[in-house]
Amino acid sequence: MKSAGPKVAVLVLALAAAGLGVAVVAANPGAETPVATDYCRAPGSQATQVKEFTTQQYLDPEDTSKSLQQLIDSASKDGGGIVQLPAGTFTLGRPLVLKSNVALKGTGAATVLKAGPEFLETKGPFGGHPLITTNGAQNVTISHLTADQSGEELDGNTPGRLTEYLIDVRHTTNALVEDVRTRNPFTYSIAVVASSNFCIRNNDTLVTSSGKYDQLDGIHITDSHGGIVEGNTVDQRQGDDGDDGLVAQTIGAPVYDVTYKNNKVRGGSHGSAMQLAVGKHEIRNISVEANRFWGSPNGVKIGYYDGNAAVHDIVVKNNSVTDTPGPWLDFQGDLKNITVTDNVVCQSGAMKLGEAPGNVVSNNREGC
């Protein structure tokens, strides 16, 4: 299936690896991005206008963020477009702020956006240090690149570390984050905050640091609704600092109508494979389906933070949970309509599910 709408105009940023020249030129409209399944309803940027940009020289060989921000701003002002990056490492001295109707795309893993030595000297819009933030932009895409926050080289333990995140989708409708590899985080790797109609698909998060940071979650959905987290590989445990793999959290608003499907997840040593983190607002209509959870201290759990709102209409089905010493499912509190069916469990702790109206539990089995 392909996403609906017209083909997208492409603005190509060609950076010669040796000469560090910068040229942005209009190209023929590209093909629409194929959607892996019917579940992803957020096509991201679908710009239709073409404009040619030309920058005569590379502004700073040690910091490409100013050049890239100018391209993003110009593309959005002209109605939108794709800023296409070739393979190479692009050092950022400050966060990139994506704008409405713009797609930021690389060629895959070899396109690396990396926080540079001066990165921590400039804060993001909310006082943190995101590598890329949408900051209220609508209809955006971030795809086919590696995002390296340089947490091993920088000291990311600064004020605001957990106010913005490595890839930060915030106050945005229609956001697609696809085929992004996050490396060396000092905060959450991919976060969706106060947003709707989002698709976080086929990404790869990794935590390798030890003893330097805490609360390094993988894919974290906060105060948001109407989205899918699908086909991602989340490994928060190659080092010792990792926390939860997948999260749905309420701080200032409920989280609802979100599907977590077909992800491969190992939670970090400080966390769980997946957590529903409840505050003063409820979590509802969440589907946790066909995921592989492995090697985590705990499986899928509910945690309470500054509140104990209701959790209801949750489906946990067709998942596999392996090598998890804690409970493979741990739901307690104000519950209703919790469905736990057809999950396969191997070398993991027992299920803990509080009694609640509408609960359905069936066909969960051992299967090593």
TrEMBL record:
Keywords tagged on the record: Signal
InterPro entries per UniProt: Pectin_lyas_fold, Pectin_lyase_fold/virulence, RHGA/B-epi-like_pectate_lyase
Protein name as it appears in the record: Rhamnogalacturonase A/B/Epimerase-like pectate lyase domain-containing protein
Lineage start: Bacteria, Bacillati, Actinomycetota, Actinomycetes, Micrococcales
Domain of life: Bacteria
Domain Rhamnogalacturonase A/B/Epimerase-like pectate lyase: 62-300
Signal sequence, renumbered to the chain: 1-26
Record's keyword annotation contains Membrane: no
